[in-house]
Amino acid sequence: MDPLTLVMLVVLAALVFFMFRNSRKRQKDQAALQAQMVAGAEVMTNFGMYGTILSIDEEANKVALEIAPGTVVQLHRQTIARVIEPTVAESEDAPVAEIGQDTAGVMNEPEFGQRVADADTDEEPKKGDA
Fold it and tell me: What pTM was estimated for this model as a whole?
C-alpha cells in the first residue's frame, strides 16, 4: 500500500467518525428540546414566531401555539426551535444611573450621541490653547 492511499483512508475514516458524532449530538439536543416542550412553555419557532404552547398532540405531531391572546395556530412539532427560559429581572434596589453619571453618582462626560441639557452644565467653557 502506498502512503497516499493510507492517508486518504485515514481522512475518510475521520470524516465518517465526525459525521456520526455530529448526528448523535443533534439527536441528543433534539431529545432535550422535546423533553422541555410542555403545555405552558414559552417557545420560539424556526421562523421566529414566539408563543406559548397550549397543547401537544403526540400522534399527529402537532402543537397548539398561542401567539397572541385568543390567537392559536397549529404547527408541526419539529418547527419549535427552542424553549425560552424565563429571565430573572434585576432587583429594584439596585441604583439606576442617570445620563452622564456612573453607578457611584459621579458626573462623567456624555457618551457619543447622548444629549445633555444645557442647564445641567455648571462648568465654564474651557479656553483653547490658541
Answer: 0.49
Measured in degrees and rounded to the nearest 5, phi and psi for residue 90 equal -65, 150
CA nearest neighbour of 84 among 125, 40, 121, 43: 43
Contact of 36 with 78, CB cutoff 8 Å: no
Grid coordinates belonging to 120: 445641567
DSSP string over 39-78: TT-EEEETTS-EEEEEEEETTTTEEEEEEETTEEEEEEGG
C-beta separation of 17 from 32 below 8 A: no
The pLDDT assigned to 119 comes to 45
Alpha-carbon distance of 107 to 95, in angstroms, equals 15
Would you place residue 7 in the very low, low, confident or very high pLDDT band (cuts 50, 70, 90)? Answer: very high
Task: Tell me 99's DSSP state.
Answer: T
Q: Which amino acid is at 81?
A: A
